[in-house]
Amino acid sequence: MNPTPWAQAADTVGAFLVFLGAAICLLGSIGLVKLPEVLSRSHAATKPQALGILLVLVGVALRLRTGIDAGTLALIIFFQLLTGPVASHLVARSAYRTGGVHADLLFDDLDEQLSEEPDMPRSHPRPDPDREDAAPKDGPEDGHTPGGG
Asked: Quick one: where's region Disordered (predicted)?
């Protein structure tokens, strides 16, 4: 029994997509080994791998051509695309917080807000406890509370 022309075309396209996806995954793996720093490696670990696994799984779906297999492969693609960027973000965040990122690569808008003692905005100056007109912290200066004895 000879396969139909559509089945033969789907097999050919599926084989090409599997090969192309594997090649992209290979390039991402080479980048993971060759790139010099954490952020570049994180990029090489997620971007090409997500595209590569997507192409491989679409190629496999074209080859298998059943509903259950396509549904299973769609779930794999969904969870792979959902978890890959999250894991990459956590690796980059960990590298940033432990000082594993070169300072010349950084421009951090939130650095002042995340430091231990950030500068207050000029519209809200810090209270000076030595000022005479500063509001008392614990009530009136005479030590009595209002309405009590």
From this structure: 112-149
- Cβ-in-10-Å burial (0-12, 13-18, 19+) of 50 comes to buried
CA distance linking residue 104 with residue 76, whole number of Å: 38
- Identify residue 12 by its one-letter amino acid code: T
| Residues 40-83: tens digit of each pLDDT | 888 888 888 899 999 999 999 999 989 899 999 999 999 998 99
Q: Does this model's pTM top 0.85?
A: no
What tokens were used for 54?
């997507």
Of 72, 34, 31, 33, the residue nearest 51 (C-alpha): 31
Residue 114 CB: number of other CB atoms within 10 A? Answer: 9
Q: How far apart are CA 50 and CA 30, in angstroms?
A: 15
